Amino acid sequence: MKRSTTMALALTVTTGLALTACGGEKPAPGSGSGSTADAFTPVKIGEGYTTKGGNINVLMSSDFQTLDPGNSNYVQTANVGQLYYRTLTMAKETAGQPPTIVPDLATDLGTPSADGLTWTYTLKKRLKFEDGTPITSKDIKYGVERTYARDVYTQAPQELNSALADDGYKGPYTGGDFKAIDTPDDSTVVFHLKQPFAEFPALVSRSNTAPVPQAKDSKLDYTAHPVSSGPYKIESYDRGRSMKLVRNEQWDPATDPNRPALPDTFTFTLSTAQATISQQLIADSDPTAITLDSNGGLQASDAAKLNEPKIKERTAAGLLGCTDVLDFNTETIKDPQVRKAIALSIDRNAIQLQYGGARFGKVAQSYINPAQRGYVEQHTDLDPGGKAKLDEAKKLLEGKDFPKTLVYGYADTNTRYKNVGTVLQQDLKALGIDVQLRPIPAANYYTVLASDQMPDIARSGWCGGADSGSVRTTIDPNVGPSVDGKTYGFSNIPRYYDPKISGEMYQLRGANGSSEELGKKWATLFDQAMQSYPLVPLVRTFTNSVVGSKVRNAQVGYFFGAIDLSIVGVER
């Protein structure tokens, strides 16, 4: 999984041949579809390019929420993170398809014990940090330990932690022995689990297992210069303005078949308005430019330009494993019937238009989707076509005491999300509810949603199934319980907690069975949870991302929702 920050993302996998460019050392750009009939076919640009050198200029409307692998649940950080950190395993992307879990720092996908309660990993040889210091098993363990300091790292990924037998560990800064991981020697890492977990190799692809040298840990300041274990390192970083990555001379390509590391440098501009990004990419004013912004930074008014031949041949595209939703704060909108009424009153077709219309995705009926293992049909009273059911909504509110004013929060760098709020204002006015719009700085967006400043309604996105293809990777983080099972989970934005359903989810975390069998149980519990409407699925989008005319190997990552930085190259 990964949390999407400034993304409007989607998934409905359709079959079809990928349209790619010619092969060879300097292939011509690929060409894509301009019709809605085949608009969901993955399109790669300049596939097969292998020449090293040059610079990729990444245009972004806002800074990364963090660059610290131990404090990140964000797809943008995961995308750029591929360049400067490595993990035990890796989710390797292919346009239009769920990622494949492959070894990264480890020699293989791990060895489980007979009872499934331990997993053992052996590190590859010749692994070094950017300063030449060898990477050892203790650096992997320390990277995981940091993510337990929730008082410091409020957005630390927790799926791995919830599976480990941590015995109440609170991180490396408060003392105590972390017994969930053993490091019998410098190349061996042994994880101890609470219960068997069949998809454990996917969990250790998360950024928790990025190695961190304890001597270089500067806590929250570590985000300014995380020590590189990957092919690039940070040369300069001016927060909110720019960043430059250069080659890490200590990276050994013989240990890393997953990252071709083609460009010499990556430069990032971190405060360019999305409308400007869209204009620059369409005009090809910088032939080396790409963006990680939502839908390639494209504005709705730019959609028609994608049909122009010179732009179409520079447009990478792909259907994603991600979904946008509206989260209801269940602590302020407490009555499930009120939440259902609000959900039914929303014209999701109008919201789809804010994402660019049918060309840019489909109205979603669920947070999970049929492409994820263990999917079972979901049941809600939402109209499958996205239309509002205003009469039903009004009936549900008859005799109810419901809030007459609600606050909708949105990331302030994207007018699309503000426009979603305008749709909500119009729809909920018919119920007698006044919706107030609250812009939230994009760089702090999910931190605010996790705090006591959480608004009544907020848009969020989740790239589920990305780690393993299982429905659990969407359900557990978004509506599942905390690590101890006593309250809602840390990334559970709607703060959903039902003693019975959440309790069964907690028990299911340790159940035995195949991914398919366990997935069906998770999906069934999610269907039950959705009967109280903690959230409303919005759009599974198809991302179109225009790239500069010299950019090669451009593909839209299945759960990054943007150009996959790990394989991109540039013609010189």
From TrEMBL:
One of its GO terms (cellular component) is ATP-binding cassette (ABC) transporter complex. Keywords: Signal. GO terms for biological process: peptide transport. CDD domains: PBP2_clavulanate_OppA2. SUPFAM superfamilies: Periplasmic binding protein-like II. One of its GO terms (molecular function) is peptide transmembrane transporter activity. Residues 1-20 form the signal peptide. Transmembrane segments: none annotated. Residues 100-467 form the Solute-binding protein family domain. This is Peptide/nickel transport system substrate-binding protein.
